[in-house]
């Protein structure tokens, strides 16, 4: 897996584990499926914990863990499934302030949108990563410099910039 | 009409650069075809039966002469000299090369145009009443609303990968010419019955295609200022919960149908209560800024009746017929809107050559405040013509071959490109339209038959809107041959209804005769000047089914 | 109508040609002995399964090399002039051009001499 963050490639410290046995055997930071979250917390392991959630998971089921995990990874089964973008928005709105990761075959052309919806990073399978090196992600991030929609993490919207231009910046 | 400011202009230029980069990355293998396809679709580029096809957005169907001239230039330089206006008020070129598309997009940006979201699983180009700002029965011009939605939906970071496409239409009039009930989301501007405040009736879940449905009202009255936040709530519910397991069940109409309108409303309202409306919504100054662009042009104060036009009509039957058929009353005294038909008998519905575009651009510039409209019936409109100048306009249109006096008549046929161009089509549409038009080429007969909408689709996806044609024709394939099903009684207006099948499918050669039999049945049964659709509603389908069965029986002999 | 004269249990209805679209231009192309052609008359015809498999292999390779898009078999009959003619109406229109525009498309570009 290849991790792409806002300013480039990074190394993920988290090990993805899928079973209770693997969890028991793991030493360092791990990402566990939502179903194993309780077990991981009860184990009181002294290492950072991440959650892997499906893109149709309910924010209400995830919210109890917001202040107990460092990272939430939302699975993208395919790049053309946009549910993860809305889930990211909902988790941010519900108050999650930790790291938010898009996990799956996202493409570089979606990087800016992922960041705008609240993601911090993308964890790619090797196929996409090999075809679309980090430079393409950074370029795709900054090709379109401003957007119309207000309330997303892509800087001041065009509507806000127009308002500032009218001298009505405060609101 | 709307003009780009520095932000709009830069946004569109950056989008061109982004697409140029995507093309380059497709060619060098960074993007697979599976990845590139949705990216090119979101920029209006299809791979069709013969070649790429580029669909250019004509937001809410409004164009200037300068824009139409640029389209003519593109048609000649990069295509085969013509373009095709679609049922969603857009323009398609049928033969562009991928390598030229970034350049074409640059030329479009030069005249404040683009191809953003004219295809793909995203919020599509917003359509509106072609008589916006003209019609007397209008509460408010729908175009400022449509422009606000155009901007808000463009490259939306959250709603670019929806379960399926999402089409929005806006009307400001009582009589619905924008077919809002058969869109994924329809907005009708209205006045609050008590306060008089302007807002929207919101309709969701209409659509044609393989499961045609009439939309449901999900909000009787949405205050104008709350529009974008409410749309965001609708889109978030659809993006999160629309079906993704089957592309044929992925439109919002299926979600609304499966969970019920009431439950859909509950989920939207629940989401709406959670989101930060004041942040999402456009500030009132922004709404006013956009609306100012759609202020009426500088009309002259004129008497409501033009004696000059009346005299000219009395002296020239062709002019009289044209005005009677193609003129639409203008709210401004002394003016009229003229529908310019792109349906000459034997022509290709919606096609326009580069020469015709240039001639028409000149006419619009000189006689209609430099503005023209595209209709969902694949025609054009000169929205603001002085009645005194109609004779001159008619002469100029005639010289350009654009004076066909058949707006709304039996030969004013909507047809999708069909199997002559489309990779999805199962049968041809255009030759069927041509044959029907030839069958009814007599102008006096057309006028006698009166208003009658024939709509033809070349496959079940229904781009030709056959479900809502007074007569609908659906081309399918049966045993390796093209086969056509006829439906009757569809309606796309505020009386929205889906047509019903008259009987089994028939061969292409039998279609004009079948339409003739249906029309004859109407003529025999009509009462007191009833229009075709009114007779169908009153008399029901049975007499038409009988006539149709007779056609089938004769064909079998 | 489109019943096979030579029907095998697997694979396409023979004979076939292999068609695709040129990626960079979009034009309909057909595989020949030495590359791709826009001229349907020059398409290489596979009369047996082995020949069809060779066409397919070359088509897949060309798609992988980002030269063409969506290569697929087009069942044909061979007319009196030895020219492959698509059996199905969709492919026949694709091979010639829009039926409503005889002046446009391959039917105009490659008129028999």
UniProtKB/TrEMBL annotation, chain A:
Which InterPro entries would you find in this protein's record? Answer: UCP030820
- Which top-level group of life is the source organism from? Bacteria
* A Pfam family: DUF934
Q: What is this protein called?
A: Uncharacterized conserved protein, DUF934 family
Q: Which organism is it from?
A: Consotaella salsifontis
From TrEMBL, chain B:
Residue ranges occupied by any Nitrite/Sulfite reductase ferredoxin-like domain in the UniProt entry: 52-110, 331-400
What is a GO molecular function of this protein? Answer: metal ion binding
Q: Which Pfam families match?
A: NIR_SIR, NIR_SIR_ferr
Q: Which UniProt keywords apply?
A: 4Fe-4S, Heme, Iron, Iron-sulfur, Metal-binding, Oxidoreductase
Q: What is this protein called?
A: Sulfite reductase (NADPH) hemoprotein beta-component
Alphabetical list of PANTHER family matching this protein: BLR3264 PROTEIN (PTHR32439:SF9), FERREDOXIN--NITRITE REDUCTASE, CHLOROPLASTIC (PTHR32439)
Q: Does the keyword Heme apply?
A: yes
Domain (Nitrite/sulphite reductase 4Fe-4S): give its ranges: 119-273, 410-548
From TrEMBL, chain C:
List, alphabetically, the Pfam families matched. DUF2849
Enumerate the InterPro entries for this protein: DUF2849
What name has this protein been given in UniProt?
DUF2849 domain-containing protein
Organism, per UniProt? Consotaella salsifontis
Q: What is the lineage of its organism?
A: Bacteria, Pseudomonadati, Pseudomonadota, Alphaproteobacteria, Hyphomicrobiales
């Amino acid at each position: 897996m290849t991790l792409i963050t806002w300013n480039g490639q990074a190394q993920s410290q988290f090990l993805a584990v899928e079973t209770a046995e693997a969890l028991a055997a793991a030493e360092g930071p791990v990402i566990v499926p939502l179903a194993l979250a309780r077990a991981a917390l009860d184990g009181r392991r002294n290492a950072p914990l991440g959650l892997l959630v499906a893109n149709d998971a309910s924010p209400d089921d995830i919210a109890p863990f917001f202040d107990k995990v460092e990272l939430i990874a939302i699975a993208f089964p395919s790049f053309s499934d946009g549910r993860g973008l809305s889930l990211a928005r909902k988790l941010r709105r519900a108050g999650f302030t930790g790291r938010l990761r898009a996990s799956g075959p996202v493409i570089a052309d979606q990087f800016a949108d992922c960041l705008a919806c609240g993601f911090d990073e993308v964890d790619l399978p090797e196929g996409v990563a090999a075809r679309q090196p980090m430079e393409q992600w950074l370029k795709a991030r900054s090709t379109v410099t401003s957007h119309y929609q207000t309330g997303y993490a892509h800087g001041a919207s065009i509507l806000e910039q127009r308002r500032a231009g009218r001298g009505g910046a405060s609101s | 009409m709307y003009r780009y400011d520095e932000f709009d202009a830069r946004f569109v230029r950056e989008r061109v650069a982004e697409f140029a980069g995507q093309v380059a990355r497709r060619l060098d293998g960074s993007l697979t075809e599976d990845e590139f396809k949705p990216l090119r679709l979101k920029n209006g580029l299809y791979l069709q039966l013969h070649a790429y096809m580029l669909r250019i957005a004509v937001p809410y169907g409004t164009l200037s002469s300068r824009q139409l001239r640029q389209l003519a230039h593109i048609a000649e330089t990069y295509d085969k000299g013509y373009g095709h206006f679609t049922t969603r008020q857009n323009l398609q070129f049928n033969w562009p090369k991928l390598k030229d598309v970034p350049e074409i997009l640059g030329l479009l940006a030069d005249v404040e145009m683009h191809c953003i979201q004219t295809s793909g699983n995203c919020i599509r180009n917003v359509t509106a009443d072609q008589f916006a700002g003209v019609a007397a029965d209008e509460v408010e011009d729908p175009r400022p609303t449509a422009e606000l939605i155009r901007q808000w939906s463009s490259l939306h970071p959250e709603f670019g990968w929806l379960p399926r496409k999402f089409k929005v239409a806006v009307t400001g009039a009582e009589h619905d010419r924008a077919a809002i009930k058969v869109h994924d989301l329809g907005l009708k501007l209205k006045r609050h019955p008590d306060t008089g405040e302007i807002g929207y009736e919101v309709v969701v879940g209409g659509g044609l295609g393989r499961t045609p449905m009439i939309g449901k009202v999900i909000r009787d009255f949405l205050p104008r200022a709350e529009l974008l936040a409410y749309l965001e709530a609708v889109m978030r519910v659809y993006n999160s919960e629309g079906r993704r397991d089957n592309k044929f069940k992925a439109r919002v109409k299926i979600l609304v149908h499966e969970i019920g309108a009431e439950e859909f409303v509950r989920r939207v309202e629940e989401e709406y209560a959670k989101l930060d409306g004041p942040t999402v919504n456009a500030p009132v100054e922004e709404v006013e800024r956009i609306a100012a662009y759609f202020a009426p042009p500088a009309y002259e104060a004129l008497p409501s009746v033009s004696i000059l036009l009346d005299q000219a009509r009395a002296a020239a039957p062709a002019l009289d017929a044209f005005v009677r058929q193609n003129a639409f009353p203008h709210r401004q005294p002394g003016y009229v809107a003229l529908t310019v038909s792109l349906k000459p008998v034997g022509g290709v519905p919606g096609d326009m050559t580069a020469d015709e575009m240039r001639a028409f651009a000149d006419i619009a510039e000189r006689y209609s405040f430099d503005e023209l409209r595209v209709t969902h019936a694949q025609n054009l409109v000169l929205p603001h013509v002085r009645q005194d100048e109609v004779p001159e306009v008619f002469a100029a249109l005639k010289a350009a071959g654009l004076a066909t006096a058949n707006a709304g008549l039996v030969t004013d046929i909507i047809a999708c490109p069909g199997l002559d161009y489309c990779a999805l089509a199962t049968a041809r549409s255009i030759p069927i339209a041509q044959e029907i038009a030839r069958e009814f080429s007599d102008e006096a007969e057309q006028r006698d038959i009166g208003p009658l909408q024939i709509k033809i689709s070349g496959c079940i996806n229904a781009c030709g809107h056959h479900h809502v044609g007074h007569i609908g024709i659906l081309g399918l394939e049966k045993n390796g041959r093209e086969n056509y099903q006829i439906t009757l009684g569809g309606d796309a207006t505020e009386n929205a209804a889906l047509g019903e099948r008259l009987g089994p499918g028939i061969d292409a050669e039998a279609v004009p005769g079948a339409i003739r039999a249906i029309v004859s049945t109407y003529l025999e049964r009509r009462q007191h000047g009833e229009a075709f659709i009114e007779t169908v509603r009153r008399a029901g389908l049975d007499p038409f089914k009988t006539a149709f069965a007779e056609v089938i029986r004769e064909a079998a002999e | 109508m489109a019943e096979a004269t030579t029907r095998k249990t697997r694979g396409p209805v023979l004979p076939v040609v292999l068609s695709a679209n040129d990626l960079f231009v979009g034009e309909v192309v057909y595989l020949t002995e030495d590359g791709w052609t826009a001229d349907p008359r020059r398409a290489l015809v596979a009369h047996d399964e082995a020949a069809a498999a060779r066409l397919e292999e070359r088509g897949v390779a060309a798609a992988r090399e980002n030269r063409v898009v969506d290569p697929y078999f087009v069942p044909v009959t061979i007319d009196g002039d030895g020219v492959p003619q698509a059996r199905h109406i969709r492919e026949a229109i694709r091979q010639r051009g829009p039926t409503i525009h005889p002046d446009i498309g391959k039917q105009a570009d490659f008129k028999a001499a």
